[in-house]
Prior knowledge:
Elements (H helix, E strand, L loop, with lengths): L5 H12 L6 H8 L3 H15 L4 E6 L3 E6 L5 H6 L3 H7 L6 H14 L4 E2 H7 L4 H16 L4 E4 L4 E5 L2 H14 L1 H4 L5 H5 L2 H17 L3 E2 L1 H18 L9 H7 L3 H17 L5 H14 E2 L7 H22 L7 H19 L17 H18 L5 H18 L5 E6 L4 H14 L5 E6 L1 H6 L7 E4 L10 E4 L5 H14 L4 H4 L5 E5 L4 H14 L14 E4 L4 E5 L9 E12 L4 E9 L6 H16 L2 H6 L4 H9 L5
Parallel strand pairs: 8-9, 8-10, 10-11, 12-15, 14-16
Antiparallel strand pairs: 1-2, 3-5, 4-5, 6-7, 13-14, 15-16
Amino acid sequence: MAQLEKRKAIILNTLLEREDYITAQQLAAIAGASVRTIKSDIAALNKLVENCGVQIRSVPNRGYRLEQGEDADLSELSLMMDDSELRRFYKVPQDANERIYYLIRKLLVVDYPLETGELADEIYVSEPTVVRDLQKARIILAKRNLKLVMEKKGNVRLEGSELNKRLAISEFFFHNEKHIGKEENVFRDGLNRQEVEGIRIILRLVCREFSIVLSDASLSNLVIHVFIALTRYRFYNFIEADEALQAEYRDAVEYAAAKRLTEALEEAYDFVIPDDEVIYYAMHLRVKRIYDEIPLTDQERVRINQCISQCFWEIYEEYGVDFSQDQELRHYLYQHIPLMIIRLKNHMSFRYPQVLDKPSSYLFSIKLTYIVADVIGRFYQVGVNAQEFEYLAIYFCFALLKSRSGKRICIGVYNGGGRAETVMYFNAVRGAFLEEDYEVRIVDYGDLFQRERGTVDICVSTCSLEEPSGAEVVMIRDRTYIQEIRRAIYRHKTRSLDWVAYFPPGCVTPCLKGREPAKILRNLRDILAERDIFPAEGPEEPGFECLEVGNGVILVQDPGHRCRKGFFFLGVLERPVIWDMEVAKILVMADTADRRDPDLQTLCYILSKWMTNCKGEDIMEKQWDDREWMRFMSEPMED
Length: 639
């Protein structure tokens, strides 16, 4: 029996593996074809498989399903499909976003032009589809200082320095699981535990000899970069260091350590490593090592302190938050910024997903960090990228938490039952809530009603109580009382917010249009202008800043403070779009007319709680009206 062509084999195999219905749209996404083509293929398949005792049944509003008769012969069907071809298909990308990252990885692996027609055959799509995907890949690669060149003959190649290629390889093959992919390649399949441990041992010995201290995360990151370099050597790809860079490092201890490292690698892996590679390893050692004291000249010390003071002053002017007396934060920034500048100027920023995992949990500090990034950019003529931005935001998040440590929420466990029972619940509540943020104590009737009002914020009780002034009562009815306390805390922290003012009808756009970030942001600007929030006149580009905060959510910031009044906006994209490092599904934006307004921190808290718990794909499926969205945003979430 003749074998089916690839697309029909994929459709038939998908139907064989599913017991429920599947729509033409879903099959189109899997097979990389139009809905019309899928329907045509299914009609043709039905004629081919009827002799095997099976039929592809179509049900309106449900889709397709393979139904087997009593005389069905599935062995005949298997002969029609090439198993090896199917196995290869399921290793290639299954949607547009996966295809774009697949093409990026493909371009990073090879050192010769690729034909778009061959790429189309490789990933089971048409050549025009590949060309569209490559246009989006070009934007992503440009942010990594790499240039995707598309030639008239249908060839495509990647241009850029070897340093930038290696940094991109580390991101798209190792550091971001969403980008790694399923296909076989020289980096994914070449790394084994024995080689990793060998590189790690060499690095530890070298660092110990030259008294260079690396954190475990920095050491693991450097192991990956050494492995990438060793793999690139096999194809004669080497770093080129200019004279200025060589002069900067020649007399440094990091250079001596890097020289010893290259000698050990040459001996272990039988390579001849050029001198410029020594500079490459020295740069990594300098920006990754832990210093007791950053080596700075007197002029550099004055400059970094002026930069930090300017950051603190501008934050106070804009947001009314005073860090001027926070010596611990100043020390952290003094240690961090000089090395950050070196990383930025040499395009050597790196991202630790285990550290920078939940930026949605510190949104207000992100707003402050936009000011810090702007000041640093003015002082040192550099652009602070997303990775370094998030590190700075973490420092300010810790500083904010520390500044609030004296404003603890008081949780009172009411002594209304037996003494043992009260102590039991007191210990359970105290164990669930950190002392840095909460004061948990046993209270009696006098604490709640006879003494100074407002000393207890949340009262936990096993018996019915009249509502104390300023306190919410959480009844202990079952084992869910801890969760109920967390929801009460959320209500307590958001009680002063005017929900109607910030979440009016129309604050949610259920289908924000646009196929690429710039167009989406222009559409956002137009929506805000229609609501008299943002000026209608002005530059074509609105000047918004964006940050990926996880779960498919993009936080939009207005650094120029052109928005005229306090507002909240949530836009569900009409389709998922690759933003920078992740696939975006939702845009959120929130601001107040006066950024010193305490409402801004409350809004950021609400958004942080919501974004930490939301899933973009779930939100995209919801077809809610304004009232449903309002209820969803305002319902208590666990703190």
